[in-house]
Write a structure and sequence with these properties.
The complex is a heterodimer.
Chain A lengths: L6 H16 L5 H28 L7 E7 L9 E6 L1 H24 L6 H21 L3 H19 L6 H32 L4 H11 L5 H17 L8 H4 L5 H10 L4 H8 L1 H6 L1 H24 L3 H21 L3 H28 L12 H4 L1 H14 L7 H15 L4 H27 L13 H16 L14 H6 L11 H28 L1 H9 L1 H11 L4 H19 L6 H21 L4 H22 L1
Antiparallel strand pairs in A: 1-2
Helix pairs in contact in A: 1-2, 1-4, 2-3, 2-4, 3-4, 3-10, 3-15, 3-20, 4-5, 5-6, 5-10, 6-8, 8-11, 8-13, 10-15, 13-14, 13-19, 13-24, 14-15, 14-18, 14-19, 15-17, 15-18, 15-20, 17-19, 17-20, 18-19, 18-22, 19-22, 22-23
Chain B lengths: L5 H21 L3 H25 L4 H31 L13
Classes of the chains: A mainly alpha, B mainly alpha.
């Protein structure tokens, strides 16, 4: 069974090739069949392989499959090879299962599209294929190929509605900002290769352990450069500015790429290279600090947005901050657990928001919505399930178990654990507040705009399935205080290091306080945004409130700083540098030919006798040269 | 029969050629331009004959026959152009036909 692994990434690529080359001759039904079918089939195979992997673990808890040798020059022989261990099992399961649900949803969501339908599914399939290559790659070069592939698809799909220049700008911004991180990552790969002589991940990790000293400058440099790549892709401080603008793309794209899968690639990279990060404690602590900072900052920004998709975008940045916090404190399995539950509930929330936007005639402003609870009950209940999972409602939601594991890991960490825990704890409060602000604005209160959409089965089935998963997904990993069935952690520990354990009593106290804070957050949201909305308005109207509101609304002014200090300076320098020494020869060439042109066109007088005279003069000169100089 | 030295023949050819060239350059009437061209052609033909005579080779005279043939062809094309010029501009002044100036 495991030898079918290569089909998992190949099938979406086949779908891409069919749709990209033959899309224009296919009907919409055929396009949807190819687009959804390729990913769906890939999901079926992935599930079968995973069951097989769990039931009958291969030797060393890992399986690798080499398809062919990619390059072979002077000892550098990266293969197109896939490596399956528990980490990649979870990744491919989430990518294919959530991915196929989102594809199914897109088949109906994008139906109004006339000529872009095939293009949309081609890009989505290419994305899934690249993402699977990324998570299955057994060497860093193949991983980098997938990494750039998903970046390309992100660009293509953010700018999907390319007739609006704003969408193109958002796409370019996403591409350029992530490029900053990708460049750092590429330098990191070259550094690893020149120092250790291989890019195959497992031998590379062994070589690093054998040859490098913990905390030496080379480990710090390598881990730091890889972290740069992870920060760009996962939209963490200071490269988070592209993600809110990425919401210009169609909603299924936001659900698949900018919430469930691609943006977590950074977390995957750090988890995959965990040996390297454990060997450089400075960088490892930085990861946790960045995660903690990002989750707080993004939480505040999510609190003041008007656009429902931007709320979810900031929420995604914040939740990935939790994952960074988890990998930063060494709670590896907690990070992957939160990745999985987050993929469920965030994909669900985005797709729910998509249905809301469709039903409200492409209205995205939450302040113009309201009362959808009665208008679309099934949508409301699924959206509520996702929201409750996001705010980590105690005991019954998946988000509770994963966030709880992260907070416990943060508390147990040696490097400033209490501070990191406090950030995560405060973030939990913010999460409740902004999530239920959104829920109350959209689904409660009076109806502002009637909801007129009869969502079909293809729109609602993915929502129901994901709502189910957002609730029960947490039971895969019950902590010691609540049932002690850590199946997920045990599975992850076959490929990732163990997490430090806390005393049961401490863990229970942490769980109780986290539960309380999320409930208090929901209550505050209820009080401020539903019961006494005038209070918030007055708060925003105060001078301090207005400044903070504006500041948070604009994402803490990062865009302003980047535009003025980096982009602005660059533009100024290049403008000043426009007439430098190196341009002069080129400019001179142009000037000389221009002068020659003027002179020669003057001789072209149109008078035959002048032509004859110049022929005669030329002849005299030619003969003169021959006679006198030879 | 006393032979004519080559230098004198060549000087005559050069004088004729120069006169023809001056005629081409200064005359504005296209008929006279064509006449002057004939003078130039014959001047070069004379040079060939003189040279052939100096080295006792028939090549010079053969080449003159070619020049004559070419001159006949040139004149037929030239006269056709004269007719066209007259039809278009109602004049024989070639400076009028200068619309192809750069």
């Amino acid at each position: 069974m495991l030898h079918l692994l290569f089909l998992v990434p190949i099938l979406p690529f086949c779908g891409f090739v069919i749709l990209a080359l033959g899309g224009r001759w296919l009907t919409k039904t055929q396009i949807a069949l190819v687009g959804v079918g390729s990913v769906g089939l890939s999901a079926v195979i992935a599930v079968a392989i995973s069951l097989n992997f769990v039931a009958d673990a291969p030797t060393g808890n890992a399986f690798s499959q080499s398809i062919w040798t990619w390059i072979n020059i002077g000892g550098f022989t990266p293969h197109i090879a896939f490596y399956l261990d528990s980490l990649s099992v979870i990744m491919i399961l989430v990518v294919t299962v959530v991915g196929s649900l989102i594809h199914l949803y897109s088949a109906e969501y994008m139906e109004e599209e006339s000529d872009g339908y095939a293009r949309f599914f081609a890009c989505m399939n290419l994305f899934v294929g690249s993402m699977l290559t990324l998570v299955l790659a057994d060497n860093l070069l193949l991983l980098y190929l997938g990494w750039e592939g998903v970046g390309l698809c992100s660009y293509l799909l953010i700018g999907f509605w390319y007739t609006d220049p704003a969408n193109g700008r958002a796409a370019r911004k996403a591409f350029t900002v992530t490029r900053v991180g990708d460049t750092a990552m590429l330098v990191g790969l070259l550094l690893l290769f020149t120092k250790l002589g291989t890019l195959q991940i497992q031998p590379l990790m062994q070589a690093a352990q054998a040859h490098w000293v913990v905390g030496s400058s080379i480990t710090v440099a390598a881990a730091g450069l890889l972290l740069g790549g992870a920060l760009g892709k996962s939209a963490q401080l200071p490269l988070q500015t592209w993600l809110p603008d990425a919401m210009a793309g169609p909603t299924p794209v936001s659900a698949l790429i900018h919430a469930a899968t691609m943006v977590t690639a950074g977390v995957y990279l750090i988890a995959r290279m965990n040996v390297l990060f454990t060997m450089s404690p400075v960088i490892h602590t930085t990861v946790a600090a960045i995660g903690a900072g990002t989750l707080i900052l993004a939480g505040f920004s999510a609190l003041v947005q008007r656009d429902i998709k931007r709320v979810l975008a900031y929420s995604t940045i914040s939740q990935i901050g939790y994952m960074f916090l988890a990998v930063g404190v060494g709670a590896w399995s907690a990070a992957m657990f939160h990745f999985m539950t987050h993929a469920f509930f965030k994909a669900l929330l985005f797709m729910g928001a998509g249905v809301v936007i469709l039903g409200e005639h492409h209205e995205q402003d939450m302040f113009k919505m309201g009362g959808l609870r009665k208008e679309a009950p099934l949508l409301f209940w699924t959206f509520l399930a996702g929201s409750l999972s996001l705010v980590a409602l105690p005991l019954v939601t998946a988000g509770f178990y994963s966030k709880d594991a992260i907070l416990a890991g943060a508390w147990a960490s040696d490097a400033g654990g209490r501070w990191l825990w406090a950030a995560g704890f405060g973030g939990a409060f913010l999460t409740s507040l902004y999530t239920f602000r959104m829920v109350f604005y959209v689904f409660f209160g009076e109806v502002r705009k009637p909801f007129n959409l009869k969502p079909g089965i293809r729109l609602m089935l993915p929502l129901v399935v994901l709502a189910f998963l957002s609730i029960v997904g947490g039971y895969l990993d019950l902590p010691r205080t609540l049932g002690n069935q850590p199946w997920f952690s045990d599975f992850m520990h076959t490929s990732l290091p163990e997490t430090k354990e806390l005393a049961s009593s401490t863990e229970r106290n942490l769980q109780i306080s986290a539960s309380l804070i999320s409930l208090i957050g929901i209550f505050f949201a209820y009080y401020f945004f539903l019961r006494e909305p005038g209070l918030v308005r007055r708060l925003v109207a105060t001078p301090v409130g207005a400044v903070l509101h504006r500041f948070w609304f604009k994402g803490w002014g990062f865009d302003w700083v980047y535009d003025n200090f980096i982009v602005g300076t660059y533009v100024k320098v290049s403008r000043a540098d426009k007439n430098d020494l190196f341009d002069m020869p080129v400019a001179a060439l142009a000037l000389v030919s221009q002068g020659l042109n003027i002179a020669l066109s003057w001789t072209e007088s149109g008078r035959l006798r002048w032509y004859a005279a110049s022929v005669a003069a030329g002849g005299v000169i030619a003969v003169g040269i021959v006679v006198f100089f030879t | 029969m006393a032979s004519i030295p080559m230098e004198q023949g060549l000087v005559l050819a050069a004088v004729l050629f120069t006169l023809g060239l001056i005629g081409v350059l200064v005359r504005r009437n296209i008929i006279f331009v064509l006449l002057s061209l004939e003078v130039m052609l014959n001047a070069s033909g004379l040079a060939f004959i003189v040279a052939g005579y100096r080295w006792s080779q028939p090549d010079g005279q053969i080449l003159f026959l070619f020049v004559l043939t070419m001159a006949a062809a040139e004149v037929s094309v030239g006269l056709a152009l004269v007719l066209q010029l007259h039809r278009l501009f109602k004049t024989l002044d070639i400076d009028v036909a200068s619309r192809m100036r750069g």
